[in-house]
Amino acid sequence: xxxxxxxxxxxxxxxxxxxxxxxxxxxxxxxxxxxxxxxxxxxxxxxxxxxxxxxxxxxxxxxxxxxxxxxxxxxxxxxxxxxxxxxxxxxxxxxxxxxxxxxxxxxxxxxxxxxxxxxxxxxxxxxxxxxxxxxxxxxxxxxxxxxxxxxxxxxxxxxxxxxxxxxxxxxxx
Length: 173
Known about the structure:
This protein is α/β, with parallel strands linked by helices and 173 residues long. It has one domain: P-loop containing nucleotide triphosphate hydrolases (Rossmann fold, 3-Layer(aba) Sandwich), CATH 3.40.50. It has helices at residues 12-22, 30-38, 43-50, 52-68, 85-92, 104-112, 125-143, 156-167, and strands at residues 2-5, 27-29, 74-76, 97-101, 146-149. It has a 5-stranded parallel sheet with strand order 2-3-1-4-5, sandwiched between helices. It is globular and about 45 Å long. The relative contact order is 0.18. The mean pLDDT is 93.
């Protein structure tokens, strides 16, 4: 089992799917586990209605429920997983955490292609993202078993080869 972590738009889902295929494991997105666990259709609506604390509790409980089934998988985590101590505790005792690092400016550029997300201050987008990036990058570096700097992320194939070269001896199946 592997956990793939990173800040929003770092490539968690894309590369978790490729790793799952490479290792002949299922890919699981923790957001999908939350939807199934809560029997809801929209995570953003749940978060808005119930708040951050309830969301983080559901995030940890959904993963714990999946892990109780003892299925091996490559699991991509939500971008805010670093903020959830209950989830982090569960991750650390279960499997290696791979942090996919991308430069702050590259991530912000990707994030803003979809418009300004609700977790950023629309009146000060760059500063609010900078604070979030620094906080989460620091935390992911603390909890990760392996940090992979994805560099300029030129294309998926080249970047995936970089990931495999760094995971190679770290994760032997």
